[in-house]
Design goal:
The protein folds into 2 domains: 242 residues, YmcC-like fold (Beta Barrel); 81 residues, Immunoglobulin-like (Sandwich), CATH 2.60.40.3080. The chain has 2 helices and 21 strands. A hairpin with a 3-residue loop joins β8 and β9. By secondary structure, it is mainly β.
Length: 362
């Protein structure tokens, strides 16, 4: 009898460890969070479409080409043209859109997504584009529902979204789209450095752009390729631990982006926005006790300096306020920050640009 009881207990532990999870709002980001991801554009011979109940996905062979810090900022940290309206509609956070595939004629140089969380959903309520040097807020008249909570295996939902705005000196730009989300799998996902119990979500997005050019008195609807997002989510990790994006042309899917949560790789570098935006320098680097963060501004701007660990966890944030054009320095102490030996990430960010560098503490 004792052996039977022990066997039953062991089996319950094994089965329990493989039980499907539920994803809720509590597993999403909060304003101020940041996440480090590794990027690549291929999964080799692996098949992203395979899924099911109690499935084992093995993506341990993924190889990074670069790394990125994804940051979720309070709307108040953005230019007033974004901060005022998106705070007014109680937006949870803004996130830089680094995968924008806008129309070249629009000359889009920066883009942000503004999202709102609730107990029932995560949805995009707006966007901020800098077009021809002018920052413009785009309000969604119908929201794009990215997730519906609680999220469980077998759930299906859909949404129709729409936004549009007249653009000074150009004309008009807008987009309509239809999203279908299906939680089509659960099980164990293995990545190069970690394994997770996950839910798998497949999102299919069909969208059409509307563009009118005043100077030409010409307008057109442009149907974009159907986008497919394969996302593996787990508890407490804020964003998918693995996301594979593809464009669908007919029956052929072409992978456009692969991102997964990872450790920091010193050889990968961290992808930077706007290149050498601030001529950022850290010295001495490596350092033992003191670090000087030096950066230059071409125009007055509010500045935030963040120290993160290699997993993307923010350790401290310094809000410097609006600073004048010219060179500035910020002194940091490893003692004051209680930093052990290791590798950290320094991020200098304004409302419209960001630059990231590695800091080694010896």
């Amino acid at each position: 009898m004792k052996k039977i009881i022990l066997f039953s207990f062991a089996m319950s532990m094994v089965l329990g460890s493989r039980a499907q999870i539920t994803v809720t709002r509590n597993d999403m980001p909060n304003a101020g969070d940041s996440v480090l991801v590794s990027l690549t554009n291929t999964i080799g011979s692996l098949d992203a479409t395979l899924t099911g109940a109690n499935y084992a996905w093995d993506f341990s062979s993924l190889t990074y080409t670069s790394q990125q810090e994804i940051k979720f900022d309070n709307p108040t940290t953005f230019p007033l043209i974004y901060a005022i309206p998106f705070n007014f509609i109680n937006t949870s956070y803004g996130r830089e859109n680094r995968n924008l595939t806008g129309l070249p004629v629009l000359n889009i140089t920066a883009a942000y997504d503004f999202l709102k969380e609730s107990t029932g959903s995560l949805k995009q309520v707006g966007a901020g584009y800098t077009i021809g040097g002018t920052p413009l807020p785009f309000f969604y008249t119908s929201n794009d529902v990215i997730y519906t909570f609680p999220m469980n295996y077998g759930n299906t939902d859909s949404s129709d979204y729409q936004f549009g705005l007249p653009i000074p000196t150009i004309g008009y730009y807008g987009e309509i789209g239809h999203r279908v989300n299906v939680v089509d799998g659960w099980g164990t996902l293995t990545l190069p450095y970690s394994s997770y119990q996950t839910l798998r979500v497949k999102s299919v997005i069909a969208s059409t752009d509307t563009l009118y050019i005043s100077a030409l008195s010409f307008g057109s609807n442009i149907v974009r390729p159907t986008r497919v997002e394969y996302k593996w989510l787990t508890n407490g990790k804020q964003i998918p631990v693995l996301e594979i994006d593809a464009n669908l042309l007919g029956t052929t899917a072409t992978i456009s982006n692969v991102s997964y949560q990872d450790i920091y790789h010193s050889g990968a570098g961290i992808a930077e926005n706007n290149g050498n935006a601030f001529a950022l320098q850290l010295f001495p680097n490596p350092s033992t006790d003191q670090l000087v963060v030096q950066y230059a501004l071409t125009n007055p701007s509010p500045i935030t300096i963040t120290v993160s660990d290699v997993m993307g966890k923010v350790l401290t944030t310094s809000v410097e306020g609006v600073q004048t054009a010219g060179t500035h320095q910020k002194w940091m102490s490893t003692t004051d920050l209680h930093l052990a030996k290791g590798v950290y990430v320094i991020t200098v960010q304004s409302a419209m640009a960001k630059e990231v560098k590695r800091w080694v503490v010896e």
